[in-house]
C-alpha cells in the first residue's frame, strides 16, 4: 500500500511543505515503520492495542506483519520481562554564539534498574551530578555554561554505557522551544529497553 501511494497509483494528500498526509493512526505507525526496518515485531510488554495494530497491518497490506500478529505465541518468553531506561536532555543554547554555547544543560537517567544507576554514579564521578532519592529512581547531571562538545561528550558516554549493559534504543524524540530572544531550549528523549529474567521469590 505504501509503495502504491508513493508511486502515484492512489490519490495522496500533501501539506503546505509537501509532506505526505496519511489519515491513519500515527502512534501505531511507529510499530509499522520499525517492522519494515527490521522485519521484527517489537512491542512494549504492556501493549494493549493488538486489534488496532492488526487493522493497520491489514490497511498497509504488510503480509509478514499480518502473519506475525496472527501468531498466538507470546512476544517474549514467559519467564522474562522488559526493563526500561529513560534518558532525557534539556539544553538551553545561546542563539547568537559561534560556535554554539550551552548556557546550561540537564541530563537525567530514570530507571528502576538500581544497578545501572549505581554504575553511572560510580563511573561518571568527574561530572557534576546529583543522585536523586532512590525512590525517584533517577540520577541527574546539571552543568554549564560549557561548550557544545562538552555537553555532547557526556551524552555520548552515557548512551554508550547504557548500551553496553545490554539495552537497545526503542525510540527517540526531540522538542524545540524558544523561550527568550537570545536562547533556544532543546529537549531530547531516548528510551532504552532490555529483556531480563524473572527471579523467583
Automatic annotation (TrEMBL):
Domain named Potassium channel tetramerisation-type BTB: residues: 2-65
Pfam families noted in UniProt: BTB_2
TM region positions: none
PANTHER family named in the record: BTB_POZ DOMAIN-CONTAINING PROTEIN KCTD6, POTASSIUM CHANNEL TETRAMERIZATION DOMAIN-CONTAINING
Protein name: Potassium channel tetramerisation-type BTB domain-containing protein
Organism: Cirrhinus molitorella (mud carp)
